[in-house]
Amino acid sequence: MQLDKSAIEAHNEYLIKDHERRFNYIAAEVQDVEALLQKLIDFQVAIPSWALGTGGTRFGRFPGGGEPRNLEEKIEDIGLLHALNNSSGAISLHIPWDIPENATHIKALAAQHGLQFDAMNSNTFQDQPGQAFSYKYGSMQHVNKAVRQQAIDHNIEVIKYGLDLGSTSLTVWLSDGSCFPGQLNFRNAFQNTLESLQQVYSALPDDWKMFVEYKAFEPNFYSTTVGDWGQSLLYASKLGSKAYTLVDLGHHLPNANIEQIVALLLMEGKLGGFHFNDSKYGDDDLTVGSIKPYQLFLIFNELVEGMDARGMKHATDLGWMIDASHNVKDPLEDLLQSVEAIMITYAQALLVDRKKLAEAQLNNDVVTAQEILQQAFRTDVRALVAAARLRSGGALNPLAFYRQHDIRAGLINRRGSKSMATGL
Ligand code: PSV
Ligand code: MN
């Protein structure tokens, strides 16, 4: 489903007066508004191929209908999001949930929607039909070499799929770990995992990056073999310069200071990618910015500061992706909200007066430092984000457009109310 450009234009025309009033107000407050708008226009957040269907829990799943039935329809859905917000210009594939059977066709279809292929994701946390060995007791950590080899081979296969599509990174998330004390020898599990990752790393093309994603818990609840940023950094450092740590916001123990983790990883040149979501209890996979928006702002503040300190390009030097699940919302509406929350928070972080903040820090002026951060966080930047969208051909209010045009009803019409997307 390609959106009619003239429908977006009509929508924008209807809203333009109100928008301009809001924009002129905030633009007068911002120092170099043109530079800021360009940064917002350039910033793209990848959408995971597994987030386009309804998620669920072990207690049930309540699909809303019209879910994409194959990779082509998933690309179509992301194309739709991108046409509306111009900030979702990439797709991240999980193998084997979304195998690109015909890479040339899939690549051409994505290009038609202005989409690129972000990080490829391997899956050694589920057993697949016909698979020789089970991952019940882990994959890369496994005590049996043959199981480890199977996991290594799978990752190398994922790299090959990615090469055909023009991707340049591999994200490895392992569910490996243990459920009970005594189940694992921690050092052996680490060494096995490291050796397996080394095999995959040696198959990595020169211009690729490998992201090692950590998670403190689930599905293993006693120990996780890549359990925190320290362990991930250890693997990434031992692997080499193409290996990086990936931070998923939902993968920490309660109250972890994620902004500090981000700052230090950036300082070491070892932060590679990001999975956005929000949570109250654990890996809840809720809409970005819906529970702890100030924490998200503090994280973005460190991202901008740390990237600028290293002369990194905000838009391209890290992998930005949403990793969420939608149990009660329409996934496309949730993704529009998540991207909007990311853009708003990025814009707020760009507004922080860095010179004044550095001065306040040097003077131990705690109150001023807090005022500077909160001044940026409390600024309503929505008109700036909308202006960036307008300039790149998107809709002033993507969510309103989606509802007014009853896009979900159209999808249900064409795909049926019982269609099921692969993924979580
Ligand atoms: C694991 O919880 C994770 O965050 C990893 O990124 C997976 O690839 C993704 O979710 C989907 O299971
Ligand atoms: Mn993740």
From TrEMBL:
<dbReference type="InterPro" id="IPR050337">
    <property type="entry name" value="L-rhamnose_isomerase"/>
</dbReference>
<keyword id="KW-0464">Manganese</keyword>
<dbReference type="GO" id="GO:0046872">
    <property type="term" value="F:metal ion binding"/>
</dbReference>
<protein>
    <submittedName>
        <fullName>Sugar isomerase</fullName>
    </submittedName>
</protein>
<dbReference type="GO" id="GO:0016853">
    <property type="term" value="F:isomerase activity"/>
</dbReference>
<keyword id="KW-0479">Metal-binding</keyword>
<keyword id="KW-0413">Isomerase</keyword>
<dbReference type="InterPro" id="IPR036237">
    <property type="entry name" value="Xyl_isomerase-like_sf"/>
</dbReference>
